[in-house]
Amino acid sequence: MRINEILVEQKTHAVSQGDTLWALSQRYNVSVDDLKTWNNLSSDTIKVGQNLIVSKSDAVVKQNNDSAEASNDLQTIINKYAKKYDFDPKFITAIVHKESSFGKFLHGDKNLKNQAFGPMQVRKNAWQDVVRIFPNTDTTIWDRTQKFDLDAGVHAGVLYLAALRKNYGADSYEKLLAMFNGGPKGTRNPNALKYAKAVLEIFIAL
């Protein structure tokens, strides 16, 4: 396994019209979470004229060949299930970026009873909805999702989207995303609607 290390200088960026944290993360090869941490941001909202730190002094960018291969595998999995359940692959990819920084974080809310698992951060109550709406679903998908199997994790997330679309009248990407984040009543939840907007920005940028 070969690891390439490149030293990068500290950089700042003056926010201009149309900039988003997602777009800046792609431009400077950092994660959205890094940008939020470095700039003490509590949300994805940024303002024109705001100066943002986009890399840390003496930071080391490491590219692991195994990680690159895993990313390629994850995109292949996304494409497979997007096609199977009739979703735009970029839509699923945008959710995976938002939920897990494209597979970097597979276990969320560890301190809560209702933890989140996999590249799409699916929770047990969401999976229970899937099984109720699609009774013939292979229940081992959830078991494997909890063991951080990438294929099962994406499959579980896309199945939940399909269940929301089928059973709750999610007839637009915005509604679907709000429900994915906030449950069937997510369209009434301001935070879930903000989540939907953030994912749609990623989707448009892809």
Describe this structure as you would to a colleague:
This protein is of the alpha+beta class and 206 residues long. Helices cover 52% and strands 13% of the residues. It has nine helices and seven strands. The strands form three sheets. Strands 5-6-7 form a three-stranded antiparallel β-sheet. A hairpin with a 7-residue loop joins strand 5 (107-108) and strand 6 (116-117). It starts with a strand and ends with a helix.
Question: What tags apply to this protein structure?
Answer:
single chain, about 210 residues, alpha+beta
Identify low-pLDDT runs: 1-9, 58-66
Tell me the overall shape: globular
Largest sheet: 3 strands, antiparallel
Which structural class should the secondary elements be placed in? alpha+beta
Average per-residue pLDDT, rounded, comes to 86
Order of helices and strands: EEHHEEHHEEEHHHHH
Write out the strand line-up for the largest beta sheet, numbering strands in chain order.
5-6-7
Distance between the termini: 29 Å
Radius of gyration: 18 Å
How many H/I helical runs? 9
Strand-residue proportion: 5-15%
Helix content: 40-55%
In short:
The protein has helices at residues 21-28, 32-38, 65-84, 89-100, 124-133, 140-146, 150-167, 173-182, 190-205; strands at residues 3-8, 11-14, 51-55, 59-64, 107-108, 116-117, 122-123.
List the helices and strands and how they pair.
Layout: E1 3-8, E2 11-14, H1 21-28, H2 32-38, E3 51-55, E4 59-64, H3 65-84, H4 89-100, E5 107-108, E6 116-117, E7 122-123, H5 124-133, H6 140-146, H7 150-167, H8 173-182, H9 190-205
Antiparallel strand pairs: 1-4, 2-3, 5-6, 6-7
Helix pairs in contact: 3-7, 4-9, 5-7, 6-7, 7-8, 8-9
